[in-house]
């Protein structure tokens, strides 16, 4: 069986990055996840003023949204980060690395913004995923990594 996703970390002539794949392509059902913010199920802000707590909540929300589409982090092809301060990027990357443990990282972009929908929010993350029509026997997504 061939992989439904291919990650290219360093296309010819492009400097490699350990923080993301430069190119990801694949086959399957396209899923778009709206930007997720640090709100709990009741709509309360989690971790006001704490970038690490907010990042963990954002990735927990992304995981729930992906699951609703029959997807998981192994299906994500692109993340876009919106941060009110680029200094929060290390906390966001730590949460992302925990969520993607052992998986190739997707393509990504990070943008510093003046504000988000609520003043106590520090970050928002949106995701695009490709879900295979059929999972391999073990239920894990099959991935290829090209360096």
Structure description:
The relative contact order is 0.29. The chain contains 2 helices and 7 strands; from the N terminus they run E-E-E-H-E-H-E-E-E. The strands form 2 sheets. Strands 3-6-4-5 form a 4-stranded mixed sheet. A 3-stranded mixed sheet has the order 2-1-7, with no helix packed on it. Helix 1 (51-68) runs parallel beside helix 2 (89-99). Helix 2 links the parallel strand 4 (76-83) and strand 5 (107-112). The two termini are 21 Å apart. With 147 residues, it is of the alpha/beta class.
Set out the fold topology.
Elements: E1 5-8, E2 23-26, E3 29-36, H1 51-68, E4 76-83, H2 89-99, E5 107-112, E6 123-131, E7 143-146
Parallel strand pairs: 1-7, 4-5
Antiparallel strand pairs: 1-2, 3-6, 4-6
Helix pairs in contact: 1-2
Give me the Rg, rounded.
15 Å
Q: What is the averaged pLDDT score?
A: 92
Distance between the termini: 21 Å
Poorly predicted tracts of residues = none
Number of helices: 2
What is the helix fraction of residues, given as a range?
Answer: 10-25%
Strand and helix order:
EEEHEHEEE
Question: What structural category characterises the helix and strand content?
Answer: alpha/beta
Q: How would the global form be characterised?
A: globular
How much β-strand is present in the residues?
Answer: 25-35%
Largest sheet: 4 strands, mixed
Descriptive key words:
4-stranded mixed sheet; 147 residues; globular; 3-stranded mixed sheet; 7 strands; 20% helix; alpha/beta; 2 helices
Question: Can I get a quick summary?
Answer:
This protein is of the alpha/beta class. It has helices spanning 51-68, 89-99, and strands spanning 5-8, 23-26, 29-36, 76-83, 107-112, 123-131, 143-146.
């Amino acid at each position: 069986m061939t992989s439904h996703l291919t990650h290219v970390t360093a296309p010819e002539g492009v400097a490699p990055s350990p923080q993301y794949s430069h190119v990801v392509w694949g086959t399957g059902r396209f899923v778009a996840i709206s930007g997720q913010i640090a709100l709990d199920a009741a709509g309360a802000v989690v971790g006001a003023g704490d970038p690490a707590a907010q990042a963990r909540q954002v990735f927990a929300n992304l995981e729930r949204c992906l699951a609703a589409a029959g997807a998981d982090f192994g299906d994500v092809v692109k993340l876009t980060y919106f941060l009110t301060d680029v200094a929060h990027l290390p906390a966001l990357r730590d949460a992302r690395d925990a969520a993607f443990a052992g998986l190739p990282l997707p393509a990504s972009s990070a943008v510093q913004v003046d504000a988000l929908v609520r003043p106590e929010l520090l970050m928002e993350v949106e995701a695009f995923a490709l879900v295979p029509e059929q999972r391999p026997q073990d239920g894990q997504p099959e991935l290829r990594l090209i360096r």
